[in-house]
Amino acid sequence: MTDHRQAFDAAFAKCPLIAILRGVKPDEVEAIGEALVAAGFTILEVPMNSPDPLDSIARLARKLEGRAVVGAGTVLRVEDVEAVGAAGGTLIIAPNANLRVIAAAAERGYVALPGIATPTEAFAALDAGAAALKLFPAEAASPTVLKAMRAVLPKDTRVLPVGGIVPEGMAAWTQAGAAGFGLGSALYAPGMTAADVGARAAAFISALKAE
Protein backbone atom coordinates (compact mmCIF):
# COMPACT_ATOMS: atom_id res chain seq x y z
CA MET A 1 0.00 0.00 0.00
CA THR A 2 1.30 3.45 -0.93
CA ASP A 3 0.95 6.19 1.66
CA HIS A 4 0.02 9.33 -0.27
CA ARG A 5 0.27 11.62 2.77
CA GLN A 6 3.84 12.63 1.91
CA ALA A 7 2.86 13.82 -1.58
CA PHE A 8 -0.08 15.74 -0.11
CA ASP A 9 2.11 17.34 2.56
CA ALA A 10 4.60 18.47 -0.10
CA ALA A 11 1.83 19.88 -2.31
CA PHE A 12 0.21 21.61 0.66
CA ALA A 13 3.53 23.17 1.68
CA LYS A 14 3.85 24.64 -1.84
CA CYS A 15 0.29 25.98 -1.95
CA PRO A 16 -2.28 25.42 0.85
CA LEU A 17 -5.24 26.12 -1.43
CA ILE A 18 -7.56 23.38 -2.70
CA ALA A 19 -9.34 24.05 -6.00
CA ILE A 20 -12.90 22.70 -5.82
CA LEU A 21 -14.14 22.04 -9.36
CA ARG A 22 -17.80 21.33 -8.67
CA GLY A 23 -19.70 20.81 -11.91
CA VAL A 24 -16.66 20.49 -14.16
CA LYS A 25 -17.00 18.23 -17.20
CA PRO A 26 -14.39 15.69 -18.35
CA ASP A 27 -13.88 17.36 -21.74
CA GLU A 28 -12.82 20.66 -20.11
CA VAL A 29 -11.11 19.50 -16.93
CA GLU A 30 -7.59 19.08 -18.30
CA ALA A 31 -7.38 22.64 -19.64
CA ILE A 32 -8.74 23.99 -16.35
CA GLY A 33 -6.29 21.84 -14.40
CA GLU A 34 -3.39 23.16 -16.44
CA ALA A 35 -4.52 26.76 -15.84
CA LEU A 36 -4.68 26.14 -12.09
CA VAL A 37 -1.22 24.53 -11.96
CA ALA A 38 0.21 27.37 -14.05
CA ALA A 39 -1.14 29.83 -11.46
CA GLY A 40 0.52 27.89 -8.64
CA PHE A 41 -2.16 25.48 -7.39
CA THR A 42 -1.00 21.97 -6.43
CA ILE A 43 -4.20 20.38 -5.01
CA LEU A 44 -7.35 19.81 -7.08
CA GLU A 45 -10.68 18.31 -6.11
CA VAL A 46 -13.55 17.12 -8.31
CA PRO A 47 -16.72 16.68 -6.22
CA MET A 48 -18.56 13.42 -6.73
CA ASN A 49 -21.77 15.27 -7.64
CA SER A 50 -20.13 16.65 -10.79
CA PRO A 51 -20.82 15.15 -14.26
CA ASP A 52 -18.80 11.92 -14.67
CA PRO A 53 -16.50 12.80 -11.74
CA LEU A 54 -14.39 9.65 -11.92
CA ASP A 55 -13.58 10.34 -15.58
CA SER A 56 -12.49 13.88 -14.69
CA ILE A 57 -10.38 12.61 -11.79
CA ALA A 58 -8.70 10.02 -14.01
CA ARG A 59 -7.91 12.64 -16.66
CA LEU A 60 -6.50 15.08 -14.12
CA ALA A 61 -4.46 12.40 -12.36
CA ARG A 62 -2.82 11.41 -15.65
CA LYS A 63 -2.35 14.93 -16.97
CA LEU A 64 -0.95 16.42 -13.77
CA GLU A 65 1.02 13.46 -12.45
CA GLY A 66 3.97 14.72 -10.42
CA ARG A 67 2.68 18.29 -10.54
CA ALA A 68 -0.50 18.21 -8.48
CA VAL A 69 -2.39 16.02 -6.02
CA VAL A 70 -5.84 15.09 -7.33
CA GLY A 71 -8.83 13.67 -5.56
CA ALA A 72 -12.57 13.78 -4.98
CA GLY A 73 -14.91 15.90 -2.93
CA THR A 74 -18.35 15.08 -1.52
CA VAL A 75 -17.21 11.51 -0.86
CA LEU A 76 -20.07 10.15 1.23
CA ARG A 77 -19.73 6.36 1.06
CA VAL A 78 -16.98 3.83 1.67
CA GLU A 79 -17.47 2.36 -1.82
CA ASP A 80 -16.75 5.80 -3.29
CA VAL A 81 -13.31 5.71 -1.65
CA GLU A 82 -12.48 2.59 -3.65
CA ALA A 83 -13.80 4.11 -6.88
CA VAL A 84 -11.81 7.33 -6.46
CA GLY A 85 -8.64 5.35 -5.80
CA ALA A 86 -9.23 3.19 -8.86
CA ALA A 87 -9.51 6.36 -10.96
CA GLY A 88 -6.16 7.61 -9.68
CA GLY A 89 -7.38 10.00 -7.00
CA THR A 90 -5.54 10.06 -3.67
CA LEU A 91 -7.51 12.74 -1.83
CA ILE A 92 -10.82 11.94 -0.13
CA ILE A 93 -12.68 15.12 0.84
CA ALA A 94 -16.16 15.27 2.36
CA PRO A 95 -18.60 17.86 3.71
CA ASN A 96 -19.15 15.70 6.78
CA ALA A 97 -17.21 13.57 9.25
CA ASN A 98 -18.27 10.02 8.37
CA LEU A 99 -15.85 7.99 10.48
CA ARG A 100 -16.18 4.92 8.24
CA VAL A 101 -15.22 6.91 5.14
CA ILE A 102 -12.29 8.55 6.95
CA ALA A 103 -11.01 5.21 8.22
CA ALA A 104 -11.44 3.55 4.82
CA ALA A 105 -9.38 6.29 3.19
CA ALA A 106 -6.67 6.22 5.84
CA GLU A 107 -6.43 2.41 5.75
CA ARG A 108 -5.80 2.52 2.00
CA GLY A 109 -3.11 5.18 2.31
CA TYR A 110 -5.26 7.98 0.90
CA VAL A 111 -5.54 11.45 2.38
CA ALA A 112 -8.80 11.98 4.27
CA LEU A 113 -10.00 15.56 4.64
CA PRO A 114 -13.47 15.47 6.23
CA GLY A 115 -15.79 18.35 7.00
CA ILE A 116 -16.26 19.37 10.64
CA ALA A 117 -18.21 22.11 12.40
CA THR A 118 -17.54 21.37 16.08
CA PRO A 119 -14.64 20.29 18.32
CA THR A 120 -16.43 16.97 18.91
CA GLU A 121 -16.44 16.21 15.19
CA ALA A 122 -12.87 17.46 14.83
CA PHE A 123 -11.44 15.13 17.48
CA ALA A 124 -13.46 12.15 16.22
CA ALA A 125 -12.23 12.76 12.66
CA LEU A 126 -8.61 12.98 13.78
CA ASP A 127 -8.96 9.76 15.78
CA ALA A 128 -10.35 8.04 12.65
CA GLY A 129 -7.29 9.03 10.61
CA ALA A 130 -8.02 12.43 9.06
CA ALA A 131 -4.94 14.14 7.60
CA ALA A 132 -6.51 17.61 7.86
CA LEU A 133 -9.90 19.11 8.66
CA LYS A 134 -12.31 21.13 6.54
CA LEU A 135 -14.22 23.74 8.57
CA PHE A 136 -17.51 23.66 6.68
CA PRO A 137 -19.52 25.66 5.98
CA ALA A 138 -17.20 28.52 6.87
CA GLU A 139 -20.14 30.91 6.42
CA ALA A 140 -21.66 29.36 9.56
CA ALA A 141 -18.46 29.84 11.55
CA SER A 142 -16.02 32.75 11.93
CA PRO A 143 -12.33 33.38 12.56
CA THR A 144 -13.25 33.70 16.25
CA VAL A 145 -14.75 30.19 16.23
CA LEU A 146 -11.67 28.80 14.49
CA LYS A 147 -9.35 30.48 17.00
CA ALA A 148 -11.27 28.85 19.86
CA MET A 149 -11.01 25.43 18.17
CA ARG A 150 -7.28 25.90 17.55
CA ALA A 151 -6.79 26.44 21.30
CA VAL A 152 -7.86 22.86 22.03
CA LEU A 153 -6.91 20.92 18.89
CA PRO A 154 -3.42 19.36 18.58
CA LYS A 155 -0.97 22.07 17.51
CA ASP A 156 -0.12 20.41 14.20
CA THR A 157 -3.76 20.03 13.11
CA ARG A 158 -4.41 21.66 9.75
CA VAL A 159 -7.83 23.31 9.56
CA LEU A 160 -9.06 24.68 6.21
CA PRO A 161 -12.14 26.94 6.07
CA VAL A 162 -14.33 26.08 3.09
CA GLY A 163 -17.41 27.94 1.90
CA GLY A 164 -17.67 31.52 0.78
CA ILE A 165 -13.93 32.15 0.83
CA VAL A 166 -12.82 35.12 -1.30
CA PRO A 167 -9.31 36.58 -1.69
CA GLU A 168 -9.98 39.63 0.50
CA GLY A 169 -11.36 37.48 3.34
CA MET A 170 -8.43 35.10 3.72
CA ALA A 171 -6.18 37.17 6.00
CA ALA A 172 -8.59 37.19 8.95
CA TRP A 173 -8.92 33.42 8.82
CA THR A 174 -5.17 32.91 8.54
CA GLN A 175 -4.59 35.11 11.59
CA ALA A 176 -7.06 32.93 13.49
CA GLY A 177 -5.08 29.79 12.64
CA ALA A 178 -6.32 28.59 9.24
CA ALA A 179 -3.65 26.44 7.57
CA GLY A 180 -5.18 26.84 4.11
CA PHE A 181 -8.48 27.04 2.27
CA GLY A 182 -10.82 25.14 0.00
CA LEU A 183 -12.02 27.38 -2.81
CA GLY A 184 -15.31 26.78 -4.57
CA SER A 185 -17.48 29.09 -6.66
CA ALA A 186 -15.23 32.14 -6.16
CA LEU A 187 -12.57 30.18 -8.07
CA TYR A 188 -14.55 27.96 -10.44
CA ALA A 189 -18.15 27.79 -11.56
CA PRO A 190 -19.58 25.69 -14.40
CA GLY A 191 -19.27 27.41 -17.76
CA MET A 192 -16.08 29.29 -16.93
CA THR A 193 -13.19 29.02 -19.38
CA ALA A 194 -9.72 27.86 -18.41
CA ALA A 195 -8.53 31.45 -18.84
CA ASP A 196 -11.23 32.69 -16.45
CA VAL A 197 -10.22 30.13 -13.85
CA GLY A 198 -6.55 30.96 -14.29
CA ALA A 199 -7.22 34.66 -13.66
CA ARG A 200 -9.21 33.93 -10.51
CA ALA A 201 -6.53 31.48 -9.35
CA ALA A 202 -3.88 34.16 -9.77
CA ALA A 203 -5.92 36.52 -7.56
CA PHE A 204 -6.07 33.93 -4.78
CA ILE A 205 -2.35 33.23 -5.05
CA SER A 206 -1.60 36.96 -4.84
CA ALA A 207 -3.80 37.30 -1.74
CA LEU A 208 -2.04 34.34 -0.13
CA LYS A 209 1.41 35.82 -0.77
CA ALA A 210 0.31 39.20 0.56
CA GLU A 211 -0.52 37.79 4.01
Notable traits:
single chain, 211 residues, alpha/beta, six-stranded parallel beta sheet, three-stranded parallel beta sheet, 9 helices, 9 strands, 15% strand, globular
Mind explaining what this structure looks like?
With 211 residues, the chain is an alpha/beta fold. The chain is 45% helix and 15% strand. The chain has helices spanning 5-14, 26-39, 53-63, 78-87, 99-107, 119-128, 143-150, 170-175, 194-210; strands at residues 17-20, 43-47, 69-73, 91-93, 111-113, 115-116, 133-135, 159-161, 181-183. The strands form two sheets. The protein has a six-stranded parallel β-sheet. A three-stranded parallel β-sheet has the order 6-7-8, with helices on one face. Helix 2 (26-39) packs across helix 3 and helix 2 packs parallel to helix 9. The longest helix has 17 residues, at 194-210. The chain starts with a helix and ends with a helix.
